[in-house]
């Protein structure tokens, strides 16, 4: 950037206006921010809560908090050390004198750096030492109130503290983005816009569009208020009508037109009108005519039958047959209309997708508003809107600006127009000092929405520009070598305002012994003169890299290569890659050479293959008859079966039956003891962990354990098996779309000092002594995606489909892609502290390679000229010439810097296997831990308690996931009455988890004050949503709902009599319990005045769970209060007790309540309800409990299980 810059000095920089601080790699950005923050406290006398510090990740926030506090503590420690010599300190004492005095008191300890002493020397000129100590102690004591936030945390704070000025509600819930929630409005859009439009329906079918894949392509453009659209307009119906009319004319005259063409062809240029080409064209037209189709034009030859083109293609000496040319012109018109139709169809599909994007934004906004939810992106949008669209915007900005005296913004290169706009509106426009710290050369997160143009705009807006110009990471030769590479070009990052800032190294010498070449360029082709395929080159790069690393470690093992005086270790080496496939390729090559490595990715564990394998395994447990799921699981990484192993399994009915029985057992254990216990037992039985350990697959073992923990945590939320499987599948889908939660990031498989394989994006901010870049020669894809965000000259952004791009747009996008690739290259090369190894090779896309651009021609040679030079060489001398051109450019670069420690190596690294020195192995014995007795806080529920109770005599009739065994239709209660239900009656309604979930959802949404007929749409929609035939089941479900709303429950009151405001559906609770003990519960239940049926008292003897000392949680289907003040608990049960209402008698319901221990659930619900009213100052006399067995309700008392509890009896738990 062509701005006047000066070196950054935290002690002297003016605290005013807008300041841009460029912090190149390794120059101590965090140190500089901490120094400036300390100065603001010590010298400028600001309070910690009046200084705003913003960064872009939680990890960076945590690091900043630690570093900033540490600097304040350093300053305080120096002052307290100097206190005994206070009489020696005058207002003009310089920092060196302070340092000398400090050393007199702290001889044995390392002193803080000079900055602290210089800062204190300046402060002591204005303030006496005791007062300064008091202020520093106060600042440290108040540090918890320091305003250090992520960008989202900052916006959340603004919305919370200034809710009235922002005009946002107080009680919103912050949630992570949910792709499942987006799919529903996408499907709604599909139904409303496409399902009833035959033209659109045909188009999306022909182009294989679905709500899912259209959503996936648009997902990253949601919630971007600055993004404009260029919506195309096309009259597809009109063009289709013209095309049909034209084709009808052609079809009627086709034999004649074909004859005319062959008559005139001898007069035409033979190369332009080849016989074979036009035979194929006319055959295509004839096939379409015979089959009633619109023809294609696969080779675009219809246009060549235009009368003017035919005239221009006449052979010399031939006379034009104008009448024939006029007749043939209709075929050219057909071609033109066919092309116009294709263009119109593309435009219509583009408009459709833009409309869907707008619809999704609106639907999401409405959903979040009605449900009082916001996600992280919304926080920024809400603040932006409050500043720019609210009448209180100016007052809001002014109030915030007055709250913080100065703002320090870290990692500013990762900003976007929305974020920068917020800081500009609050701080720049109100004249507050603003410090924007970042490195545009490391702006590599455009795929996350970061926008380099927002940084460049901020650079233009800033009054002062500074640079951190000392590199503390690398030594002089390495810093100078990397600078030399980028200084090959006037525009090293292609974009006009993005320059390379020069830095100098703090240290001159390498810490490797003996000294090595600091930058090694490994030419992958050796002495080859012909190019090889990219795949061969990739394999060669992995092998060469692994051989070099193994050789280096062998040298270190024998004392021939040291780092900082000690033998170099595996942990000192990093291999940087762009993709996971590259990482796995390197890991495999290293493993083959006995070198252990660790893969470090910032990706979701749910994107790993182990997640898909576990999802298939759970599906198999629930549906053991689907043996294709078993084969998938067995062939996965968890078991590693080969094709031969699967063939053997297919031939053995006994072995297959054993696996099915194992799945059934696991499903039963899940029901009784939870998912984790079932998984542990299954894994132990079949040796999953043993297999992963034996194969040395530490990555998979780590993923497997992490996934089990995630599933166990989710299972604790009382999920049914079906719901847990659905949750896992949703997590996998979100992970593959790049929207998984940060808490799901892959763990490291080892903490050992192993060779680190790191993606370049994940390596940003890190450093390694030795860095290898084996695949950096492979140019990234340079073809535009289906959608592109284009930056306009006015500073805005516009979303364009690929077909909307013109040549200038394509050129601009190519420049931006090249710039990001060059920035990614800069990040990769600057990770090295001691030595850098670059692998260079030639492939078809080498003209797009970053090195090709940097090395070609003069400093003024542009990216376009570079590509043109390579293409000209390829045209003249084929691929071999292009490869030699690339090699000559590398040679020329190295020759320009003869004494720089840069070496071009075209030899083949000798094959190597690492021989680690393991001679000092000891005899290890497990440590025997002393027995400990301790209590832990439990967090459980009725489901958790009932799981630990032994199973009864009834058997599972199916292994489908369940709500609870009875609600899934699994009860073994004797069935009296008729043997079969009436056709399509409620007794005939399917059993199982799906039916139970459907009925519960319907009852949750049902308005009991309205008849079922008035809610027909709700009934039909809910049935269809859960895959039940709405037409077939409507009448029986409507009848059941009418019985439910009309059945009297408390006195004369039915649910239909209870106003909506007196009903609380799905009441959640968390009860703290100190003494929920089984013996006490049994005794309590058996008391006569409790009025519990004897069969339930007897069943309580079968309960078996540990004393609950902690929390009980759950959800009550409904709690209501009638007009007489009576409070009633409602719980819906879809259990099938028989095929007539008489089967739902009090006796049969008592048995069902006992068998499934629902009486315990009812007791917990009663305690929760009584506490709820007591804590609100409205204690109850009694709590009525009504369990509604939905299939048996008939307004004559059947189907209602009743238990009235005096709250005085609940006193032990209230």
From TrEMBL:
Protein name (Swiss-Prot/TrEMBL): RecBCD enzyme subunit RecB
More details: In the RecBCD complex, RecB has a slow 3'-5' helicase, an exonuclease activity and loads RecA onto ssDNA, RecD has a fast 5'-3' helicase activity, while RecC stimulates the ATPase and processivity of the RecB helicase and contributes to recognition of the Chi site.
Encoding gene (name): recB
Segments forming domain UvrD-like helicase C-terminal: 495-765
Record: residues binding ATP: 23-30
One Gene Ontology cellular component annotation held by this UniProt entry: exodeoxyribonuclease V complex
Cofactor, free-text remark: Binds 1 Mg(2+) ion per subunit.
Species: Neisseria arctica
Region described as DNA-binding and helicase activity, interacts with RecC: 1-909
Function as written in the Swiss-Prot or TrEMBL entry: A helicase/nuclease that prepares dsDNA breaks (DSB) for recombinational DNA repair. Binds to DSBs and unwinds DNA via a highly rapid and processive ATP-dependent bidirectional helicase activity. Unwinds dsDNA until it encounters a Chi (crossover hotspot instigator) sequence from the 3' direction. Cuts ssDNA a few nucleotides 3' to the Chi site. The properties and activities of the enzyme are changed at Chi. The Chi-altered holoenzyme produces a long 3'-ssDNA overhang and facilitates RecA-binding to the ssDNA for homologous DNA recombination and repair.
């Amino acid at each position: 950037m062509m701005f006047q810059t000066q070196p950054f000095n935290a002690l002297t920089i003016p605290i005013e206006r807008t300041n841009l601080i460029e912090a190149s790699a390794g120059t101590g950005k965090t140190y500089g921010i901490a120094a400036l923050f300390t100065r603001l406290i010590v010298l400028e006398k600001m309070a910690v809560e009046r200084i705003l510090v913003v960064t872009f990740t939680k990890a960076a926030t945590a690091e900043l908090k630690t570093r900033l506090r540490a600097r304040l503590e350093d300053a305080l420690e120096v002052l307290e050390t100097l206190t005994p010599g206070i009489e020696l300190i005058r207002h003009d004492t310089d920092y060196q004198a302070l340092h000398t005095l400090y050393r007199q008191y702290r001889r044995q300890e390392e002193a803080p750096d000079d900055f602290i002493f210089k800062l204190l020397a300046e402060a002591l000129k204005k303030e006496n030492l005791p007062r300064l100590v008091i202020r520093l102690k106060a600042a440290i004591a108040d540090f918890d109130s320091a305003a250090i936030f992520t960008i989202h945390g900052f916006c959340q704070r603004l919305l919370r503290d200034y809710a009235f000025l922002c005009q946002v509600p107080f009680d919103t819930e912050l949630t992570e983005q949910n792709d499942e929630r987006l799919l529903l409005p996408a499907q709604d859009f599909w139904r409303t816009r496409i399902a009833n439009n035959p033209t659109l329906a045909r188009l999306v079918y022909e182009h294989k569009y679905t709500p899912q894949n259209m959503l996936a392509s648009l997902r990253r453009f949601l919630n971007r208020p600055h993004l404009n659209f260029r919506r195309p307009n096309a009259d597809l119906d009109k063009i289709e009508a013209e095309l049909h009319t034209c084709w009808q004319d052609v079809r009627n005259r086709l034999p004649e037109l074909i004859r005319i063409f062959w008559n005139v062809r001898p007069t035409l240029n033979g190369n332009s009108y080849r016989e074979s080409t036009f035979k194929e064209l006319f055959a295509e037209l004839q096939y379409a005519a015979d089959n009633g189709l619109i023809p294609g034009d696969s080779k675009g030859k219809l246009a060549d039958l235009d009368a003017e083109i035919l005239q221009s293609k006449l052979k010399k000496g031939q006379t034009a047959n104008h009448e024939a040319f006029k007749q043939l012109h209709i075929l050219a018109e057909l071609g033109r209309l066919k092309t116009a139709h294709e263009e119109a169809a593309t435009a219509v599909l583009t408009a459709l997708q833009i409309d869907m994007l707008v619809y999704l934004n609106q639907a999401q906004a409405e959903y979040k508003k009605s449900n009082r939810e916001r996600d992280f992106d919304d926080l920024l949008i809400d603040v932006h809107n409050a500043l720019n669209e609210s009448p209180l915007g100016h007052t809001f900005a002014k109030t915030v600006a007055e709250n913080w005296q100065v703002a320090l913004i870290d990692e500013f290169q990762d900003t976007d127009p929305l974020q920068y706009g917020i800081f500009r509106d609050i701080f720049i426009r109100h004249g507050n000092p603003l410090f924007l710290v970042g490195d545009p050369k490391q702006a590599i997160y455009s795929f996350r929405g970061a926008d380099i143009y927002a940084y460049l705009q901020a650079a233009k807006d800033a009054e002062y520009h500074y640079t951190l110009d000392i590199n503390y990471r690398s030594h002089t030769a390495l810093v100078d070598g990397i600078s030399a590479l980028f200084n090959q070009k006037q525009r090293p990052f292609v974009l006009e305002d993005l320059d390379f800032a020069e830095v100098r190294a703090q240290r001159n010498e390498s810490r490797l012994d003996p000294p090595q070449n600091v930058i090694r360029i490994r030419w992958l082709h050796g002495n080859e003169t012909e190019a090889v395929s990219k795949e061969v080159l990739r394999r060669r790069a992995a092998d060469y890299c692994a051989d070099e690393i193994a050789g280096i470690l062998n040298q270190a093992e024998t004392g021939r290569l040291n780092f900082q005086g000690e033998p170099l270790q595996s942990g000192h080496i990093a291999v940087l890659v762009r993709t996971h496939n590259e990482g796995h390729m390197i890991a495999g090559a290293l493993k083959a050479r006995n070198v252990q490595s660790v893969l470090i990715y910032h990706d979701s564990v749910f994107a790993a293959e182990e997640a898909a394998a576990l999802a298939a395994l759970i599906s198999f447990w629930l549906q053991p008859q689907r043996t294709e799921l078993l084969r998938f699981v067995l062939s996965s990484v968890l078991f590693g079966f080969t094709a031969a192993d699967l063939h053997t399994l297919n031939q053995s009915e006994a072995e297959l039956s054993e696996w099915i029985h194992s799945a059934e057992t696991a499903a039963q254990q899940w029901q009784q003891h939870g998912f984790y216990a079932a998984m542990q037992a299954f894994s132990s039985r079949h040796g999953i962990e043993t297999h992963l350990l034996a194969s040395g697959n530490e990555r998979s073992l780590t993923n497997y354990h992490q996934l089990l923990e995630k599933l166990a945590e989710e299972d604790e939320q009382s999920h049914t098996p079906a719901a847990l499987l659905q949750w896992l599948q949703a997590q996998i889908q979100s992970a593959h779309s790049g929207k998984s939660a940060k808490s799901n990031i892959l763990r490291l498989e080892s903490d050992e000092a192993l060779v680190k394989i790191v993606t370049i994006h994940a390596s940003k901010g890190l450093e390694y002594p030795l860095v290898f870049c084996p695949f950096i020669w492979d140019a990234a894809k340079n073809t535009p995606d289906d959608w592109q965000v284009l930056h306009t000259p006015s500073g805005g952004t516009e979303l364009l489909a690929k077909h909307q791009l013109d040549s200038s747009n394509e050129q601009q996008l190519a420049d931006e892609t090249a710039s990001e690739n060059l920035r990614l290259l800069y990040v990769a090369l600057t990770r090295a502290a001691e030595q850098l190894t670059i692998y260079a090779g030639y492939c078809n896309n080498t003209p797009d390679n970053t090195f090709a651009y940097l090395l070609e021609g003069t400093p003024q040679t542009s990216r376009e000229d570079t590509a043109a030079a390579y293409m000209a060489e390829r045209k003249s001398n084929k691929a071999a010439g292009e490869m030699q051109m690339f090699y000559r450019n590398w040679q020329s670069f190295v020759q320009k810097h003869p004494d720089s420690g840069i070496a071009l190596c075209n030899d083949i690294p000798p094959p190597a296997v690492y021989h680690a020195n393991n001679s000092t192995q000891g005899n290890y014995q497990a440590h025997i831990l002393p027995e400990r007795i301790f209590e832990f806080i439990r967090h459980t529920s009725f489901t958790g308690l009932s799981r630990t109770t032994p199973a009864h005599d009834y058997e599972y009739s199916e292994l489908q996931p369940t709500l609870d065994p009875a609600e899934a239709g699994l009860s073994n209660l004797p069935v009296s009455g008729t043997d079969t239900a009436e056709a399509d009656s409620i007794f005939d309604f399917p059993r199982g988890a799906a039916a139970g979930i459907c009925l519960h959802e319907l009852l949750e949404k049902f308005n009991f004050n309205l008849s079922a007929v008035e809610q027909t749409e709700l009934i039909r929609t809910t049935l269809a949503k859960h895959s039940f035939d709405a037409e077939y089941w409507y009448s029986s479900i409507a009848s059941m709902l009418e019985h439910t709303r009309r059945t009297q429950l408390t006195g004369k009151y039915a649910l239909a009599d209870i106003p909506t405001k007196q009903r609380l559906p799905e009441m959640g609770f968390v009860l703290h319990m100190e003494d929920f003990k089984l013996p006490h519960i049994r005794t309590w239940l058996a008391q006569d005045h409790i009025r519990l049926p004897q069969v339930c008292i007897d069943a309580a003897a079968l309960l078996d769970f540990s004393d609950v000392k902690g929390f009980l949680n759950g959800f009550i289907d409904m709690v209501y209060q009638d007009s007489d003040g009576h409070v009633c608990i409602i719980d819906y049960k879809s259990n099938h007790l028989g095929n007539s209402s008489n089967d739902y008698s009090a006796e049969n319901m008592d048995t069902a309540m006992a068998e499934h221990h629902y009486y315990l659930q009812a007791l917990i619900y009663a305690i929760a309800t009584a506490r709820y009213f007591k804590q609100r100052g409205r204690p109850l006399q009694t709590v009525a409990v009504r369990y509604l067995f939905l299939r048996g309700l008939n307004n004559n008392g059947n189907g209602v299980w009743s238990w009235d509890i005096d709250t005085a009896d609940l006193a032990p738990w209230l």
